[in-house]
Specification:
The complex is a heterodimer.
Chain A: E1 3-7, E2 10-14, E3 19-26, E4 30-38, E5 45-50, E6 56-59, E7 62-66, E8 70-75, E9 84-92, E10 98-101, E11 105-110
Chain B: E1 5-7, E2 10-13, E3 19-24, E4 31-38, E5 42-50, E6 53-57, E7 64-68, E8 74-78, E9 87-94, E10 102-104, E11 108-112
Parallel strand pairs in B: 2-11
Antiparallel strand pairs in B: 1-3, 3-8, 4-5, 4-9, 5-6, 7-8, 9-10, 9-11
The chains are: A mainly beta, B mainly beta.
């Protein structure tokens, strides 16, 4: 079954305590993997797109990496404003694009 | 540049009724996608419209339908509402690359009683 699994479901960090979020996927014909940030009461905000294994992208304290089976979102020295739900999604398939999301990781960064 | 706007932001309906949600994409974007977000199922893709044509569709029953107008604005309709349709409905717009570069609106929160 095609699916995207994110772990952990929730993560609490102290300010400055670096960590990683995981997104593993089992789909055929991966075309791209996306990371989003979602704040309460708002729509997801696009962060990164990764297309091939070995690819890395960075934005401020965030770095996303991709392998053939999973992606990691590394958060370096997080701040309280990084608190949010982080979602990953994959687009896959041949002639017809299919898009599925993981259920997200709720990150809380305490000062 | 103005972002994606959705109306209404909140809606309460009763079972059996129908509802229409509206989405105005970012200026110049021709692709509009709709999603349902619930605590149990997460974000699920409903459908995508591009230049007034449905280009992609998720696994939802026929009660869920949509359309796109010539100005790229889109509406989503849900007929014969069920309690399980209570959710946050998100609209996202993108340029010609479709869902690969999409920007989300704030969503419409629908409560079915």
């Amino acid at each position: 079954e095609d699916q995207v699994t994110q772990s952990p479901e929730a993560l609490r960090l102290q300010e400055g305590e670096s960590s990683s979020l995981n997104c593993s996927y089992t789909v055929s014909g991966l075309r791209g993997l996306f990371w989003y940030r979602q704040d309460p009461g708002k729509g997801p905000e696009f962060l990164f797109t990764l297309y091939s294994a070995g690819e890395e992208k960075e934005k401020e304290r965030l770095k996303a990496t991709l392998t053939k089976k999973e992606s990691f979102l590394h958060i370096t020295a997080p701040k309280p404003e990084d608190s949010a739900t982080y979602l990953c999604a994959v687009i896959y398939g041949g002639a017809t694009n299919k898009l599925i999301f993981g259920t997200g990781t709720l990150l809380a960064v305490q000062p | 540049k103005a972002g994606v706007t959705q109306t209404p932001r909140y809606l309460i309906k009763t079972r059996g009724q129908q509802v229409t949600l509206s989405c105005s994409p970012i200026s110049g974007h021709r692709s509009v996608s709709w999603y349902q977000q619930t605590p149990g199922q997460g974000l699920q893709f409903l459908f995508e419209y591009f230049s007034e044509t449905q280009r992609n569709k998720g696994n939802f029953p026929g009660r869920f339908s949509g359309r796109q107008f010539s100005n790229s604005r889109s509406e989503m309709n849900v007929s014969t509402l069920e309690l399980g349709d209570s959710a946050l409905y998100l609209c996202a717009s993108s340029n010609d690359r479709g869902v690969e570069t999409q920007y989300f609106g704030p969503g419409t929160r629908l409560l079915v009683l």
